[in-house]
């Protein structure tokens, strides 16, 4: 995962205003007005309730009438507006996914996993990037006054645990993801789904030790700034590396900083690492983007992988299987995480108001050529 940093809506309402018809106006012509359920009903000679029942997929409509209504909906390009639905029913079928960025490969794949799982539950995912920083993350906690939605999936990065704990209760049903929240910090109305980063990095390091590697480096620590959390993803993963080395009686890891958790960051940091520490024979990377850069840098330097240096990444992004050599990596099950999160959130949206729940999502080590 990058460090510290849709689909049909459910059950549209029967008294909504709607999107314009599919007819495309010519240049300079006025925009076609919205089609209403009333107009569909009048066109077919049926009641508005009948049209509503078809739109909402209710069973009490004859098959012939249902087919006529569905055809009229297609002909007129009838679409419910989410805003009107939310005003009338209190629900929109929308869930906001607030993540630090879509620039990293992990988060783009995670967003797709959420979209897939939401579609199975007849919900829609609305993406919200908090890349603008701490104030943008605070807007998530203040209730997204400018964004529609029934609940929030939130991966905080810069905002402190004290701020989250100080809420007392979230404005909207919320499920937190990420790896650096303490259970005590969870406010009422929220749940938390996480992957055990420390244990996963421990397992990756133990795999390198099992291959006979003894001089291990960890690439993933960013330069320290006031905005970076003490319990960041990178620190948790470094803790797992250190614990595995201590248990094996191996030397402390080499821990240079990296400029970014990106391929470019891995390329530069990996080459500098081998120039300054040529004895290193195993590298655990904070994510797969870093590891891809490291692999390229080692290949450019004529260093054999895994003969001289074994490399392990984290995230199991799609490209991991297609690097040279293919990348051994930790696979946090993104689909399982998304499914668990949405199940918890939909329960909250539906009225569950019990204590905060904390669930660990599964992960596994995928062994490929870079550390086979």
TrEMBL record:
Name of this protein: LacI family transcriptional regulator
A Pfam cross-reference name: LacI
Region (Disordered) residue spans: 1-34
Q: Where is the HTH lacI-type domain?
A: 35-89
* Positions of transmembrane segments: none
Check the record and name the InterPro entries matching this protein. Answer: HTH_LacI, LacI/GalR-like_sensor, Lambda_DNA-bd_dom_sf, Peripla_BP_I
The protein's UniProt keywords, in alphabetical order, are: DNA-binding, Transcription, Transcription regulation
């Amino acid at each position: 995962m990058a460090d510290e940093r849709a689909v049909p809506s459910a059950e549209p309402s029967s008294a909504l205003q709607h999107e314009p018809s599919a007819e495309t106006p010519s240049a300079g012509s006025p925009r076609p007005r919205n089609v209403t359920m009333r107009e569909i009903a009048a066109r077919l000679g049926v009641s508005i309730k009948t049209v509503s029942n078809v739109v909402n997929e209710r069973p009490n409509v004859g098959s012939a009438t249902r087919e006529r209504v569905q055809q009229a909906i297609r002909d007129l390009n009838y679409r419910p507006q989410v805003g009107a639905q939310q005003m009338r029913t209190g629900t929109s079928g929308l869930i906001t996914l607030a993540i630090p960025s879509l620039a990293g490969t992990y988060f783009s794949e995670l967003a797709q996993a959420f979209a897939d799982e939401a579609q199975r539950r007849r919900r829609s995912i609305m993406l919200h990037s908090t890349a603008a920083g701490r104030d943008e993350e605070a807007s998530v906690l203040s209730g997204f006054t400018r964004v529609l939605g029934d609940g929030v999936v939130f991966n905080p990065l810069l905002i402190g645990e004290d701020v989250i704990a100080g809420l007392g209760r979230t404005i909207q049903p919320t499920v937190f993801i990420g790896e650096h929240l303490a259970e005590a910090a969870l406010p009422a109305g929220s749940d938390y789904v996480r992957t055990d980063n420390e244990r996963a990095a421990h397992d990756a390091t133990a795999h390198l030790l099992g291959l006979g590697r003894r001089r291990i480096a960890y690439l993933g620590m960013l330069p320290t700034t006031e905005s970076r959390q003490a319990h960041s993803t990178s620190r948790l993963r470094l803790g797992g590396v250190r614990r595995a080395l201590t248990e094996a009686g191996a030397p402390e890891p080499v821990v240079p900083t990296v400029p970014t958790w990106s391929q470019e960051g891995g390329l530069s940091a990996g080459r500098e690492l081998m120039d300054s520490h040529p004895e290193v024979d195993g590298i655990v990377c904070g994510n797969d983007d870093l590891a891809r850069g490291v692999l390229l840098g080692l290949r450019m330097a004529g260093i054999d992988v895994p003969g001289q240096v074994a490399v392990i990444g984290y995230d199991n992004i799609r490209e991991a299987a297609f690097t040279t050599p293919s990348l051994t990596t930790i696979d946090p099950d993104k689909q399982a995480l998304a499914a668990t999160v949405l199940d918890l959130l939909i329960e909250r949206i539906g009225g569950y108001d019990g204590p905060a729940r904390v669930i660990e999502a599964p992960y596994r080590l995928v062994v490929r050529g870079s550390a086979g």
